[in-house]
Structures are given as structure tokens and as C-alpha cells.
Amino acid sequence: MFLKILIVVSVFCFSGAFAKLDEVFEWKQVKFEWPNEEAEKIAIENGDYVPENNLPLGLVRWKDKLFVTVPRWKHGVAATLNYILLNTTEKSPKFHPYPDWNANLLPKEGEDPVENQIVSVFRMKVDPCDRLWIMETGLADILGNPKLVIPPSIAIFDLNTDKLIKRYNLSETDIKGEDSFFANIIVDVTNETCDKAFAYIPDLGGYGIVVYSLAEDKSWRVKHNYFHFDPLKGDMTVGGVNFQWTDGVFGVALGPLNETTGFRTAYFHALASCNQFSVSTQVLKNEILATDPASFDLYQLEGIKDDKGQSSSSDFDVKTNVLFITQLQRDGIACWNPRTKLEPDNFPLVVQDHEKLIFTNDISIDAERNLWILSDRMPIFIYKQLDPNQINYRIMRIKIDDAIKDTACEA
To answer: CA 363, CA 333: separation in Å to the nearest integer?
Structure first.
């Protein structure tokens, strides 16, 4: 009897440990706002739109728009860069291609790409200057018959005009042959330094970070042992699917600006690893220093997140000084306050759901300090097949202060 009571109490306490998530959107399959029904019909007939091959992956909010990416993992992706209007009352709204349909359509054989061509985007960032930064992989049908449609590039859109204002093709020295894979971009800028922005692009396959200076219109590649994966942490099981990955440096999040030095701390991790590292952006922004092997000791091991702490995306809330990190094998999101030592006891889960948070692929903090979460069951999508009759993709939201209340992060 005592054991039964203990179990009941434990379950009760555990279930009440997490703040409630706001379940904003959900989809069985992604649908798009086509120009007309005929356009959708033709796209399906031609194989340009295969509903089950469209997997939402990255998200970021700007005012009343929530941008969502759909990378071209497989053939039949209708549009890779999209938005949802947040004033919608629909639970499963259609995706609006951004900036328009024409930019998202793959050029046919013999056609040249349009000026604002977008081929395949994984993650993106909105900066304080009302600009949308995307890392364009340029690669279509990644898991099938990969084709490089345009070179890997950084593209920047003015969100007030929806115009492409800058495209920068990565240089040959930024790319490590066929190993390189760019699935993220982080922007370092304030609303007072719009013309002096920097972007950090992790190369998860080539184990490096590409740094781009907008003012210099120049990029350089940074190498470090900490950018590699941990061979002991590449075996994972998510959503009942076991797989082995070798993804290196993946998530990068920027801490608050140091008013004295003018630099930030960049917290980073490889996906196939449970370690968390950091380096000052003073190192990354200085090409000579960043590419000098003598800078090795300027990087720091912050600690171990959890024995099953493999992570994809991360984001930093400056007001509370808290880093949020996805937890792929734990079906949730965890937090860490860098004022404390990074160890499992100081790395609590703030949300967890073994059904609704299967593969938390991306997170993003908006201007109102909401933490947005996108889960998409990606291992099932890649290695098996998603059930079109059940909810596969979810976008959720939680207030930062609610998420960290009564946790070790509330320091």
C-alpha cells in the first residue's frame, strides 16, 4: 500500500513539474495557399507537390507573421520559405510562400534561377533591423537525387518591403567539399549597428563555423576540435526510431552584449554530443585571431548537459540570462543559467511531452519573450513513414518566465 501511494504521489508531482504549453498550430500534412485550385492540381500531377514530403523544420516570428521553413529533403516540396499569419483562427492554417510563389519554384531544365530564388532553407533569424536572414543551402531533393540548384548563400530580406536586399555566396574556402552542410544561421547585431552585422553559420558536416561580416562583405571559416561530434553520443532513439548521426557543431546562441567589451559569449554544441561549449565573439569576429591555431585555448567547455542531452537548436533569453536548448531524446526543452555550473542538476527540463514533442527540431524566442517550439517527428519522416491520419507537426509556445519558474534556471 505504501509503495502504491508513493508511486501516485511521484507521478502527481512529476506531471505538475512543467508549465503548460500553448498548442498554437498542428498539421497532419502541410498545405499551401496556392494561387488557385488549378495551380495546386497541376503541381500534384507533375510531382512538384507531394504532400507527404513537406516537413516543416525551422521557425521565427516577426510581428504578426510566423515564418516556417520546409527544406527540400525530398522531391515535391512546394515552397521552402513560408509564413503563417498569427491572427488566423485556424488550427492547421495553410502556408504562404515568402516572399512569393515565384521565388520558391524550382527552375525547370534550361531556366535560370530568379534573382530572389530560394531553394532549400532549414533555419533563419530575424534581426532588430527588421531583416530576415536565411542560410540558403541551394540543394534540392537532399535524400533522393541531390542537385545543387544555386550556390550556398546568405540571403537577407527587408521585412517591411519583402525585397531581397543582399545575397552573399559562400566562398570556396568556406565550404569543405561535399561534407559541408549548413542548417542554421545566427545573427549578431543590435538596432544601432545594422550595417555592422555578423552572421555565424555552423557547418555540421564539415565541422566548422563560417563567419560573415556584412560591413566587409567577407567571410572566413573557423576550425576547432570542439566543433566535432562525440563518437560516443551519435547513437540516438527518438519516436521509437533508432539511428546513428555524426552531426557536428549545430546550435549556436548568443548571450547578452558585454557593455564594456562590446562582445557576446557564443554558446555552441554539436548535435551528436552532450557537451556545451562557449567562445567570445571577439574571437569569431576577428579573422586573424579566429583562424590562428593559437586561439584554441580561448574556447571553453561549459559542461555536460545530460547523458541523453543531444540537442538541435538553442536560443538565449537575455533578460533572465537563460539558455534554452532542445532535448531530442528526452522529448522536450531544457534550460541552463550560465551563472551556475553546467551539470544535469542545473539543466532541468522546462517542458516535456512524449507524444507532442517528438523531435523538437527548432526553437525561437520572439520580441515579447515567448519561446516558440516546432516538433516534427523527423526521424520517422526520414527512416520510416509518417501516418497522414495523425498529427505529425506541431508549433507550441510558452512564456519564458512561466517556463523557468521554480527551476534551477531562475537564478
So the answer is: 9
